[in-house]
Amino acid sequence: MTAPETLPASLTDPESLRERALAALTTARDRTALLTSCVEEPELTAQHSPLMSPLVWDLAHIGNQEELWLLRAVAGREAMRPEIDGLYDAFEHPRAERPSLPLLPPAEARQYAAEVRGRALDVLESTAFQGTRLTEAGFAFGMIAQHEQQHDETMLITHQLRKGPAALTAPDPAPALFTGPAEVLVPGGPFVMGTSTEPWALDNERPAHRRTVPSFFIDTTPVTNAAYQAFIEDGGYGDRRWWTPEGWDHIRAHDIEAPLFWRRDGGQWLRRRFGATEVVPPDEPVLHVCWYEADAYARWAGRRLPTEAEWEKAARHDPATDRSTRYPWGDADPTPEHANLGQRHLRPAPAGSYPAGASPLGVRQLIGDVWEWTSSDLAPYPGFVAFPYREYSEVFFGPEYKVLRGGSFAVDPVACRGTFRNWDYPIRRQIFSGFRTARDAGPGSA
C-alpha cells in the first residue's frame, strides 16, 4: 500500500492533544455563543424553516451530547438531566416536530450547556488519553468538538433561512485573479483512501485502504456563478435531456429555476445572503444547489460529477511522493492562507483563491468555500466498523444519500480534512453546497 499521511506532533503527543482538545472545544463554544446571542429570544425559539430545528434545540442538544459522551461515557458520572435525553435525541424527533416539544427555554438551555462544559473541562484535565477507544488520543473530546461545530454550521444555515435583517457580519474574502488552466489531469493508478491514523477521524473515514482510479480531468476550481448562469440562460432548467428522471420530476414539482435564494431582477440575478440582498457575484463558486442541479449542469457541460474516490485522489495524492496527505497542501493543519474555513467569512471566496492551499497537481479550493457534490452514494469502506454508535454513519449507508466533500466556509477546521465525508439527500439546497466537474481522460493522457 502507498504511504499514508504523516501526523504532526500535535496529533501524537498526549499533552499536545489535550491542548488541542481544549482549543477545539473553546472555539466551538465561542461560535455557538455568537450564533445564539446575536438574535432575540423569540428568534431562538421560533422555527425558521421546517427543514431546521429552532436554534434553542441545537443549543441544548449540544450540551446533552457533551454530557452523554464526556460526563457519562468517559467519566462514568450520573446523568444530570435524564428527563431531557429524549427531547434532544435527533433520531427520536424529526426537525419539523421539535418546536412542539417542551424544550428548555433559552436561559435554561444556556445554563445547562455551561454547567456541562465546566464539568467536561475537569474531565479533560484528568483523563488519561489511553486505555479505551473513546479516550485514546482524546477521541471523545475531538468527536464532541466536531459535533458542536457541525451543529454550528446547521445553526448558520438557519440564520441564512431566517427572515429579517442581518444578524451576523464578517469581512469579505480578498479578491482573486486566477488565470490558470480550467482543468487538471489526475493520473490514474492506486492511492490510499481514508485513514487509519488520524486520531479524531470518524468511523466512516476508516480504515485506510487501497483504491485505483483511471486517469481523469477535474476542474481546477469549483463551478462559478457565471458558469452556472450560462446553464440557466441556455434553458438548462427547461431541457429534460440534462436531468435524471428523479431530478426532472423534482424541479418541475417545486418550480425550481435557479439556485436557492436567487431571483431575477430585470437583466440581472440577485440573491439573499444572511438578511441582505445583493447582485450574484460572477466569480464566486455557485452555492445552494442540490445534487440534481449539479448533475444536470455537468451533463449540459459535456462532463460529469467526480466520484468520491476521484475527489479524494485529487485532494490527497501526491504523485511525487506517492503519498496520501492529510490535506491538499500537505499534512500541516489549515491556516487562513490555505482555505476559507471557520465562518471567517460569510461567503465563498472567488474561484482560484488560496494558491497556498492547492494540491500538488494545482487543483484549488478543495477544502473550504463550498461542500462539493460527488456522484457517489454513501457507502462503508472495506473493513468499516461502526464507532461509537451506529447512528453516526451506518444507518445512512445506501443510495438515498449522496456524498459531499471538502467542507465550506461554514465548516471549522476540526470538522474538515481530506478524508472527511459529508452526505445528504440529493434534493437538499439549504446547505452550503456547490460542485466541480470531471471528465474521463482518453488513452495516452496519463
Automatic annotation (TrEMBL):
SUPFAM superfamilies: C-type lectin-like (SSF56436), DinB/YfiT-like putative metalloenzymes (SSF109854)
GO MF term list: gamma-glutamyl hercynylcysteine sulfoxide synthase activity; iron ion binding
Domain Sulfatase-modifying factor enzyme-like positions: 180-439
Name this protein carries in UniProt: Hercynine oxygenase
Annotated stretches, region: Disordered: 311-339
Binding site for Fe cation: H61, H147, H151
Keyword field: Iron, Metal-binding, Monooxygenase, Oxidoreductase
UniProt-listed HAMAP family: EgtB (MF_02035)
Organism the protein comes from: Streptomyces sp. R41
